[in-house]
Design a protein that fits this description.
Helix content is 43%, strand content 18%. The protein is built from 17 helices and 16 strands. InterPro entries: Ald_DH/histidinol_DH, Ald_DH_C, Ald_DH_N, CoA_reduct_LuxC.
Length: 458
């Protein structure tokens, strides 16, 4: 099945491309005539603008309803192929899709629109003297290996009635085109407003050609990749960026006293196991009050083992395996000379639990390494995070009462854009302002009617 999506109106003279993972190959087509693509998207935009926003929500909900069933043929094919290219297990990918697709149902979509725009119907015309207008075309450059990652930005653009040029991520190229094929069966006008394809990172000619058709740009990737795209964005183009991010957890004594170390360990294990810990929302470290750090870590080893049974970790390539083994060796070396450090790990690389009283440099990430660092108090935990404030995204905050509210505010000031309960770190809702900015409202411009007699009669 092709990993690209071309509407029927698109020119047929595209350039074939191939993406591979080991012996497996997937093919697609990249446009050549980007002026024709721009003209086709302009026509598609006219049709998209005529759709009421609630019809768009209903169509997306209907497509997601099909995808929410694990035995849906398109989903099963996508999960199988995604497992081959990402190395994740099919169960891990299914769990990721269950969570992501749940955010794309009608209720959360309308909740997100209402939170950011006040009234979703302002996208259809003037309501109460104001209307919101989205861009004609959004260029979305996706990256990473998190299954379903493109869904949110793709859906947000369609909700504001923007057509989309999507560059699919090489490390998980299957979801976008497969979902668009389903969306086409439900509402062709929506799917025909999207072109999904791929080009290499160093193919600046294609990037600039696609940029030339866009009024807004959404970029995902590392800091260097995002900077390269940002440098090419014109002043008149809206720009949204999702670069390198880090996440942490904090657990104080009161939270452990309320829930018990075994339950806290279960929550931390879920955060460190979901998506094999490869998402930006996944915790690099959990900072736990020194009174409970060791008991939590001891229970965490068993909780990580259970997670590996319920949702098997994926395969690890040679380079990542060597890095993980090195991280274990460093932790074991420290544990051999310290009463405050310990390592729990099976002979395999399925999971690792490290207890320490010092935050070592954040070298390497992912692959289910649960690091517990003991801290004397919450102030010390926040201080540990300060050097990473520029990239701070998400904090799993295990605290209660007024201390929770005070610390959450301090974390927001530090730079966090999301605070959640332990165990929910990878389960961000559609209502969350992704990376701290309104992602629907940021795509629209407003027009207000004022000082006009017709306003009083409308």
């Amino acid at each position: 099945m092709s990993v690209s999506w071309m509407p029927q109106w698109a020119p047929a003279d595209g350039v074939p491309f191939t993406l591979s993972s080991g012996p497996h190959e997937w093919r697609g087509v990249r446009p050549v005539d980007w002026a024709a693509i721009g003209a086709g998207l302009a026509t598609a935009h006219d049709g998209l603008r005529r759709l009421p926003v609630r019809r768009i929500v209903d169509a997306i909900d209907a497509a997601v309803d099909l995808w929410s069933k694990r035995d849906f043929a398109a989903r099963r094919d996508t999960v199988r192929d995604a497992a081959l290219v990402t190395g994740m297990s099919e169960e891990t990918i299914d769990r990721a899709l269950d969570g992501e697709l749940g955010n794309l149902r009608a209720e959360p979509l309308l909740a997100a629109l209402t939170r950011e725009l006040g009234d979703p119907d302002v996208l259809d015309g003037f309501k109460g003297g104001t209307t919101a207008v989205g861009p004609r075309t959004v260029l979305a450059v996706f990256s990473g290996n998190v299954p379903g990652l493109p869904a949110r930005s793709l859906v947000r653009a369609l909700l504001v009635k923007a057509t989309v040029i999507a560059k699919v991520p090489a490390r998980e190229p299957h979801f976008t085109a497969a979902f668009l094929r389903t969306l086409h069966d439900v509402e062709p006008v929506l799917a025909d407003a999207v072109v999904a394809t791929y080009w290499d990172r160093d193919d600046e000619e294609t990037l600039e050609a696609a940029l030339g058709q866009a009024d807004a740009v959404i970029a995902y990737g590392g800091d260097q990749a995002c900077a390269a795209i940002r440098a090419k964005v014109a002043p008149h183009q809206l720009y949204e960026e999702h670069g390198h991010k880090l996440s942490f957890g904090i657990v104080d004594a009161g939270y452990v006293d309320r829930h018990g170390p075994a339950e806290v360990a279960r929550q931390i294990a879920a955060d460190c196991s979901d998506l094999d810990q490869h998402a930006c929302l996944s915790p690099q470290v959990y900072l736990v009050h020194e009174q409970h750090a060791r008991p939590v870590a001891q229970h965490l080893a068993e909780a990580m083992r259970r997670e590996a049974q319920d949702s098997p970790p994926g395969t690890i390539d040679t380079q990542d395996a060597a890095m993980l083994q090195h991280r274990r060796l460093v932790a074991e070396w420290r544990a051999a000379g310290s009463d405050h450090s310990e390592v729990w790990a099976p002979d395999s690389l399925e999971w690792t639990v490290v207890l320490d009283d010092t935050l070592m440099p954040l070298s390497g990430a992912g692959n289910r390494v649960a690091r517990i660092v003991s801290v004397p108090d919450v102030a010390a935990a926040v201080d540990v995070m300060r050097p990473y404030a520029e990239h701070l995204q998400n904090v799993g905050l295990g605290m209660v009462g007024e201390e929770f509210r005070r610390t959450a505010r301090e974390l927001a000031t530090l730079g966090a854009s999301r605070v959640c309960a332990p165990g929910a770190m990878t389960k961000a809702s559609m209502v969350w302002r992704h990376d701290g900015q309104p992602r629907i409202a940021a795509l629209v411009r407003w027009c207000d009617i004022e000082l006009h007699p017709e306003l009083e009669t409308s």
